[in-house]
Design brief:
Layout (H helix, E strand, L loop, with lengths): L21 E7 L4 E9 L5 E8 L4 H21 L5 E8 L11 H15 L5 E5 L5 H9 L13 H20 L8 E5 L5 H10 L3 E5 L3 H11 L2 E2 L12 E4 L18 E2 L12 H7 L3 E2 L2 H4 L2 H11 L3 H25 L3 H13 L6
Parallel strand pairs: 3-4, 3-5, 6-7, 6-9, 7-8, 9-10, 10-11
Antiparallel strand pairs: 1-2, 2-4
The structure holds nicotinamide-adenine-dinucleotide.
Nicotinamide-adenine-dinucleotide binds next to helix 4.
Length: 358
């Protein structure tokens, strides 16, 4: 077997060693493995969260991303009422191109990582995330001996269904029973989740405009739905009732809120807000922001349904409850004069028995 040696930036450190319940570094010279597992909170159950496999400028950046994403998983599971804590791990590329899927080197890397995950004795359960594949999870499970969630079913359609349920609930909250019918919806990013969100909104009677850096993909979907396209960067500023960010993070900033015509923001993209203070600025601007970790939980609900042996009908009903949750959050937020994000964090705080601040 080829030995892969990976230089480690020795001056790097974990900037916030106590940000998570546990932050575990994993090193293996034979396979070149450099990974960080962040287990944010296990109050509600074992920490579940995907494995990212990508390059990071430093160990500090990798650790920060693992910890931040792990904390978001804690909130997502708490709000979705799932019996998991929050966790995430990163396998650092260290500037190299990814090892080829199916190669012995990649197999050895994820087998070794699996052995390290197994040492957490089930406290960390990995799943697929950016840069990793179902087969990597199978390697972690079969060769590493760790518990891993590697359902054969893609979570994306379930994530989309949840986003649509969230969007619809927010529209009903605003416009009454008609919901999305007759509204204008703009979807930014029409990949596996966004395209399905656009289709569901269209089927619900909305006029849909789509945006993607892949303009061919956007044009094809617009043609399918009888809609239009808009430049990917201009999507947030397109005249619409609902803006659904389904591509990249931090598209809503303090600087651009004044230019967003939509009254509802509900999408799949994690970390939609550039910083938590944007939630209050959105409220002041009269824009209802459905927190991303509430709207995009359909995928984890499906994964849980898969491992729990739920029927399809049970899983779909559980995903659809995201809409009920959004209604409750918006009602609470309105009654208390707080943002939906603050209402969601209140709920997470109650579930976790500790105060979670933005
Ligand atoms: P994807 O890779 O299938 O699709 C992303 C799409 O966004 C692609 O079509 C890409 O061309 C486009 N895109 C990239 N940058 C863009 C930009 N700046 N402007 C407009 N379009 C851009 O990803 P996905 O699985 O559909 O996930 C979409 C988002 O939802 C991601 O932020 C992801 O983290 C989040 N999310 C996904 C799931 C899931 O189940 N897939 C679950 C929770 C959260």
């Amino acid at each position: 077997m080829t030995t892969v040696t990976t230089p480690t930036p020795m001056s790097d450190s974990i900037a916030e060693p106590w940000a998570s319940e546990q932050t575990i570094t994993c090193r293996d010279e034979r396979t070149g493995l450099r990974a960080i597992i962040a287990i944010d909170d296990t109050t509600l159950g074992p920490g579940f969260g995907g494995v990212r496999y990508r390059a990071y400028p430093s160990t500090t950046a990798a650790a920060r991303e693992a910890q931040r994403l792990a904390a978001a998983m804690t909130l997502k599971h708490a709000l979705a009422e799932l019996p998991y804590g929050g966790a995430k791990s990163v396998v650092m590329l260290d500037g190299r191109t990814p090892l080829a899927p199916g190669s012995p080197e990649r197999g050895a890397l994820f087998a070794r990582f699996g052995e390290m995950i197994a040492r957490t004795a089930g406290t960390y359960i990995p799943g697929v995330d950016m840069g990793t594949l179902l087969e990597d999870m199978q390697t972690i499970r079969d060769e590493g001996g760790a518990r891993a969630f590697c359902d054969e079913v893609s979570p994306s359609p379930f994530t989309a269904r949840g986003v649509h349920a969230a969007m619809r609930a927010a529209a009903v909250h605003h416009h009454g029973v008609g919901g999305l019918a007759g509204t204008e919806v703009v979807v930014q990013g029409v990949g596996s989740v966004g395209a399905e969100v656009a289709r569901l909104a269209h089927a619900d009677g909305a006029r849909v405009t789509v945006a993607d850096v892949d303009t061919v993909r956007a044009e094809a979907l617009a043609a399918e739905l009888g809609g239009r396209t808009v430049d990917a960067r201009q999507a947030p500023f397109h005249p619409a009732d609902v803006f659904s960010p389904c591509a990249v993070a931090r598209v809503v900033t303090r600087e651009n809120i004044g230019r967003i015509p939509a009254r509802i923001i509900a999408g799949a993209a994690n970390d939609t807000l550039d910083e938590p203070g944007c939630a209050e600025a959105l409220r002041e601007a009269g824009i209802t922001f459905v927190p991303d970790f509430v709207a995009n939980a359909g995928g984890v609900v499906q994964v849980h349904g898969g491992v729990s042996g739920w029927s399809d009908a049970q899983t779909l009903a559980a995903v659809d409850r995201i809409g009920d949750r959004v209604t409750e959050l918006l009602t609470t937020a309105e009654a208390q004069g707080i943002t939906p994000l603050a209402a969601a964090l209140q709920r997470a705080s109650a579930a976790l028995g500790r105060e979670i601040l933005t």
